[in-house]
């Protein structure tokens, strides 16, 4: 599903990603852990071209997204992204937040988009919130709307950047439950998270990033129970 070769990203003189090679299979759930500033968000943002890589190649579902002339709109339809701070449109209802993109891009009629949106809202446990505005929702509800919104485009891949980091603790579980059910349905997911329990339980593979490189990757068992890299060991000793 994702083939990343020699990915580099610099901001001016600051080299943030220093050569990342990674393959992620269809249906795989991969968690990325690592200290703040290690390049986790930049890595995710390169996968949907919110950042332009400085060097290297990224292929998604067989198509190069880094080749000259690659179509960003088509890519964004294949890749859903969920951010720490929800990024909902504040002046639109929940339903309008979900229907905006597919209708604007001409992929669905409004009626089709609304039917799909209502199904997705039910799926994330917010069937009664279609007419609500984001400001009236809790953080956990907002994040579930953001997940439903990303799903309206029927993405092949979902990227999550610390989706629960801005939530009050009592809201975290509902959002993780929605993500877990997506994972069970076979969605390919890449999740930057500080929720180590969730990463251990839901991931097929865990990647530990530090200083712009993948220091270690393996099954949750390998990474959490028997990390080999001293940096992984040091990080886990602090967060577990
Ligand atoms: P993480 O998500 O692991 O905390 P980031 O990918 O956000 O790390 O950031 C990695 C490094 O890149 C940090 O030093 C950060 O300050 C820097 N950085 C991130 N985005 C930008 C940007 N748009 N311009 C300049 N520097 C940036
Ligand atoms: Mg980040």
UniProtKB/TrEMBL annotation:
Ranges where the ABC transporter domain occurs: 2-236
**GO MF entry, a single one:** ATP binding
For this protein, the record's SUPFAM superfamilies field holds: P-loop containing nucleoside triphosphate hydrolases
Does the record's keyword annotation contain Nucleotide-binding? Answer: yes
- One Pfam entry name: ABC_tran
- SMART domains with a match to the protein in the record: AAA
Where is this protein primarily located? membrane
Swiss-Prot/TrEMBL keywords: Amino-acid transport, ATP-binding, Cell membrane, Membrane, Nucleotide-binding, Transport
Q: How does it sit in the membrane?
A: Peripheral membrane protein
Q: Which Gene3D superfamilies match?
A: P-loop containing nucleotide triphosphate hydrolases
CDD domains, sorted: ABC_HisP_GlnQ (cd03262)
Subcellular location, in the record's words? Cell inner membrane
What family name appears in the similarity comment? Belongs to the ABC transporter superfamily.
What the entry lists under PANTHER family is as follows: AMINO ACID IMPORT ATP-BINDING PROTEIN, GLUTAMATE_ASPARTATE IMPORT ATP-BINDING PROTEIN GLTL
UniProt-recorded name of the protein: Amino acid ABC transporter ATP-binding protein (PAAT family)
Classification from the root reads: Bacteria, Pseudomonadati, Pseudomonadota, Gammaproteobacteria, Alteromonadales
